[in-house]
Structures are given as C-alpha cells and as structure tokens.
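Figure caption, in words: inputs first, then the predicted bound structure.
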Amino acid sequence: MKNGKYAVGVVGAGGIGQYHIEGWKKIPDVVIYGIADSSKETLDKVKLKYDISFATTDYKKLIGIEEIDIIDICTPNAFHYPVAIAALKNKKHVICEKPLATNSAHIEKMIQAARENKRKLMAAQNQRFTAAGQATKKIIDNGLLGEIYFAQCYAVRRRELPPRETFIRHALSGGGPMFDIGVHILDIGYWFMGCPKVHSVKGVTFNKLAGREDITGSWGEWDRNKFDVEDFAAGFVLFKDGRALQLTCSFLSNLPSNWSSNLYGTKAGMIWPEMKMFSEISGLHNDSILSPIVPDDEPSHHKELKHFLDCVRDNRDVLVKPEESLEVIKILEGMYISAEKKKEVIY
Ligand SMILES: NC(=O)c1ccc[n+]([C@@H]2O[C@H](COP(=O)([O-])OP(=O)(O)OC[C@H]3O[C@@H](n4cnc5c(N)ncnc54)[C@H](O)[C@@H]3O)[C@@H](O)[C@H]2O)c1
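Bound structure (nicotinamide-adenine-dinucleotide present):
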C-alpha cells in the first residue's frame, strides 16, 4: 500500500499496458506505483504521458518493491509466466493479460505459486466483462436458454494479422490466431457453457495465406520469413458430459470477419455479442433482439481491473478462475497436438 491506496505495478507498457494504466487511474483507491518495460523508449514516453514516478527496464526491480500489492502483466505472451512466478513469489497479486501462459504446465505452476503465497491470480479475459458478456451469462444463469448443448465460437478475421514479431513468432506468442484471439472466444463460449470438463479435442491448423506476397494485411506488413504460427485454425471439443463446442479462428481468410458465439439451447438459442435470441412460442418463430435499458459504456478492460481490485480488497474469488484458464489452454494445446498428429486428443 502507498499512502493508504493499493499500489499497482504494470509490467509491459505497450498498447494494452497503457490502456490498463488508464483503467487503474480511474479507480480512486489505487495508485500506479511504477512501470517496467524492456524498451527504454517506451518507458520514457509512458512515464511522461501518465505522470508515473518509478520506471525501470528490469521488471524484477518493480516486483521487488514491498509496497506494491498488485502486478499487472501486459508483456508479450512468452513473458507472462516468468513475470507472474516472480511476482507471486514476492507476495504480489497478479492480473495477467491473455493467454495466461503459452502452455498448461506453466499455468499449473502459476496456480501453485498463487496458492502457496496466498495471492490472487487472474487472466484478463475482458470479454467476460463486456456488457453483452455479463448480460448473456445472466440470461443463461436464469435458465432462459435451457441447456446449452452446443456452441459455435468464431474469432475470424479476414485481413487483420498483427504484424509484430510478438504475435507471429511461435517462441514469443505460443501460437497464431488460436492463442491470440481464439483464447478470447473459446474462454467466453466455455464460460457460457458452465466450464465443463473436457473429454477430447480434434483440431486442424493451416498456413495458406500468411506466407504469400499477394496477400495484404490491413494492419501493415509482416515478415513472411519470421511467420511460423498458423494463420487459420479450427477444432472441435467434446466435453465429458456429452456437450460440444466448435472453434474457428483466423488472422487472414477469404470469408468475412466473424466475432461471435452461437449458443444452441434447449429453450432458446442466442448469438453473442449481437444479443439475438431465437425460440418458439405457440408454434411461431420468436426472434428477439435484446438491448440494455441502462447503457453501459465502461470499457470491459477497465471493469476487469475494478473487479480484480474488489477481489483483492474483499478476499473474494476472481471471475476468471485460473483453473478455468488452465482448461482453456489445455484445449488449445490439444488442438495443436491433434493437428500435428492428425488424430483426436483424449484427456
Ligand atoms: N485483452 C485484450 O483485448 C488484448 C489486446 C491486445 C493485447 N493483449 C495481450 O496483451 C499482451 C501485450 O500485447 P500488446 O498488444 O500490448 O503488445 P505491445 O507490443 O504493444 O506491448 C508489449 C510491451 O511489453 C514490452 N516487453 C516485452 N518484453 C518484455 C519483458 N520481458 N519485460 C518487460 N516488458 C517487456 C515491450 O517493450 C512492449 O512495450 C499480449 O499478451 C496480448 O495477447 C490483450
């Protein structure tokens, strides 16, 4: 704590790190103690922009500060694990950008470190905090869809490939669109279904467009020689209770972009995040579009930070339980293994 406020240290002050800084700054009982970033140039810029007094290129120096309560990890995926372990061992609560880590073995160790040090750990799966995400979950919990027996989850981008090395090199990202955006859409679909235990997965990955010089990306050029992740992935998850989920993800595709989760329920179906609901009433189709009575414009990324602080302050369970993130990453890992071995992976 610093001057009676919760002290936060942000590791990784790039795009999402700065968005988090803006979110933390809105919370009255939080102070941003400092930032760490391996780029001196970024540090200097962000320090000045947000009036932050402590800045270091060595994240261990930030994590070592006793007054800091919360470490917020916004580095590229491959660094989530070492930073989180160091922070938890230094008795910090950890909120970490998605994916929580690039493999399930690392997440298991992170969960263990959180337990041993009695600290909170949560992946920043902001989709769960969107107004549509929260409303859909409430509708499901109120039983309005009945049993959701199947979900189709799409994180399909037509020509939106993040060109930075940290997204296109496996060693830094852990995977292509499946790890970058598939993790979002799988997490929310899986949460809508009540986080069932996984029985088996089957997946395919392709790299048909990203290596081609005649393909254009709306976010700029990428280095074709360094691109070693998939540009498209699809898979099928069978849960132990017999229900199932289908996942489709791409950075590049010759079909329109699609960001949605179609929920097949026994009482009604629903398309998220459009909030369209479909059912039958007295032999008639019943199609409705749900909209909030009181609009909620607060960014989901900022809501997740507030939620995390509430959990720390009141010693409550976090909404995105690390065990759920572990299951999500196990599914994605299984899809890669299945794609490579051309067979189903059974858990
Ligand atoms: N939830 C979301 O909507 C969302 C959106 C974008 C990115 N992300 C996630 O946020 C993370 C960062 O993505 P980004 O788009 O902000 O990337 P970015 O490249 O803009 O920022 C990453 C920052 O981390 C710094 N960095 C790299 N290695 C470091 C290290 N070892 N120690 C300290 N700093 C280091 C870089 O210098 C850079 O400033 C990724 O895990 C990504 O998946 C989440």
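The chain has two domains: 6-124, 128-299+328-346.
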